[in-house]
Amino acid sequence: MAAPRCASKALRASVRQLSSQAPAVQRRTFVAATSAVRAGVKAAPKAAATPFQQTRGLKTVDFAGTKEDVYERADWPREKLLEYFKNDTLAMIGYGSQGHGQGLNLRDNGLNVIVGVRKDGASWKEAQQDGWVPGKNLFDVDEAISRGTIIMNLLSDAAQSETWPKIKPQLTKGKTLYFSHGFSPVFKDLTKVDVPKDIDVILVAPKGSGRTVRTLFREGRGINSSVAVYQDITGKAEEKAVALGVAVGSGYLYKTTFEKEVYSDLYGERGCLMGGIHGMFLAQYEVLRERGHSPSEAFNETVEEATQSLYPLIGQNGMDYMYAACSTTARRGAIDWSKRFKDTLKPVFKDLYDSVENGTETKRSLDYNSRPDYRELYQKEMDEIANLEIWRAGKAVRSLRPENSK
User: Binding residues for Mg(2+) 2, per the UniProt record (predicted)?
Assistant: First the structure.
């Protein structure tokens, strides 16, 4: 979940101008498609990005004055992927959310992909349920790495750190190491994940969960992803990363670096994407309750209207479009108070970025997620959130939606 997802509208506008032959499913991201269904809003007439160069799948696009290179899947049809990876075995290490989504997409694309997880563990059983066959394309981690030419390390961040001493010796010259998060190599002083110096090291980071990666692929669409090169020994690392990005289910790929990917990802998750927005929901809800409003009214004015009405408008056509769709009274107040919120919150966001950049957030994550009782502690926190009045009220509100009341 990183910064490039906010550029999807700009890219869609540029692609519409670049190619009238591209299938419609390639022109819309998951957020936009979902928003269109919910809001029933037609696309805004204005374009947010102006392309000035096109060569094969690579496009240089002007995003509000900043030029960025963007790749699209149109340049990597299935037949080309099969030819490109005909001599490779893709070893998917780990079968969590991303491993599940990316692995199944690779398999459906016809590539030679195998899964490596702890034998007879929970992930092993889940992989079997998804049709992976022991001894054919399902192996323990060591054997999968020995068989693979491209090692796709999709273990959790904490697990990557813990298993690295056993994995590193098997990453011999000629193999490629693939990540979907820059966490481990960027914070190597803490994770101890120091990659071998004689192999390509690349990254494809989908901007969403592995379940979304899978869903969009099955619907004929593609998720936005970041793509980066940490180490290029062969001279073909970037091309390989882009091809793999398409193979795992990306529609568009935005160039970045390992460092920028992990900084923006950790920062965004703790900020507007999850932590910050949850904190604002709680603060607004609690003030409404303290001032005598009912749970249903407080929830509707805090969460329901935001997620079901206003946020989809922002995702579809931008903040200005959302303002224009509201009353003049709402518009005036929102514009005035947004400045105060920005001025108040910006110092907090600066502290947050510093905490990400200096490794404080990484250390806390590793320390916590490496505890033997972390699952129990995490579940306790989830139970506490689920039992907050705001989310218990929300459950009741959702039950009254037409799709849930049949």
Answer: 265, 301, 305
Q: Structural domain boundaries of the chain?
A: 59-255, 270-404
**Does the annotation list 265 as a binding residue?**
yes
Tell me, what DSSP letter sits at residue 395? H
R_g over Cα of the chain: 22
The answer to whether 35 is annotated as binding is no
Judge whether 327 is annotated as a binding position.
yes
Q: Contact at 8 Å (CB) between 138 and 128?
A: yes
Query: Quick one: pLDDT at residue 404?
Result: 80
Which pLDDT value is given to residue 336?
A: 95
Q: How far is CA 55 from CA 1, 75, 350, in A?
A: 28, 10, 38
Residue of 100, 181, 278, 293 marked catalytic: 181
Dist. CA 274–CA 81, nearest whole Å: 35
Structure tokens at 223: 């998720």
φ, ψ dihedrals at 105, nearest 5°: -65, -40
- Compute the distance between CA of residue 91 and CA of residue 334 in angstroms, rounded to an integer: 50
Q: Which residues of the chain have pLDDT under 50?
A: 1-56
181 is catalytic: yes
Task: Label each residue of 277-292 as H, E or C.
Answer: HHHHHHHHHHHHHHCC
Q: Is 305 annotated as a binding residue?
A: yes
Residue 97 has a pLDDT of 87
Q: Which distant-in-sequence residues (6+ apart) come within 8 Å of 276 by Cβ?
A: 270, 345, 349
Q: Is 380 exposed, middle or buried (0-12, 13-18, 19+ CB in 10 A)?
A: exposed
Q: Which long-range contacts (CB under 8 A, 24 or more apart) does 30-33 make?
A: 30/208, 30/212, 30/215, 30/216, 30/221, 30/223, 31/5, 31/315, 32/8, 32/315, 32/316, 33/221
CA distance 237 to 137: 25
> Which tokens hold the place of 303?
């969460």
The SS3 call for residue 27 is: coil
The pLDDT value given to residue 199: 97
Question: Are the CB atoms for 10 and 61 separated by under 8 Å?
Answer: yes
pTM of the predicted protein model: 0.75
The answer to whether 365 is annotated as binding is no
Fold of 59-255: Rossmann fold (3.40.50)
